[in-house]
User: Fold Carboxypeptidase regulatory-like domain-containing protein from Pedobacter psychroterrae.
Amino acid sequence: MKKISLNFVVMLALLAGLFAFTSSRSGGIQGKIIPANGVEKVVAVSGKDTLTAEIKGGNLTFHGAKADTYLILIKAKSPYKDTSVENVAVIDSTITDIGEIKLLK
Assistant:
């Protein structure tokens, strides 16, 4: 009986600890680079946080973005020019679509 009571108390303590913390849900950013072969690297910067995009066929995706406002920096391959997208807002647990970004020569 004592062992059952002790197990019950331990379970309650673990559950209380679990609910004591609010989980931070992350969101993401997605978009498309045109032309697809013109991009070298894409990063998102917010304060001290920097995320690197996953790029497949010109489609870019940032995973695990905290709710904040980001600056997207696009490093282009020659002959294209580097570019950026400012004030990209990520809201808790949502995916922000920045649309198509056309690289200029």
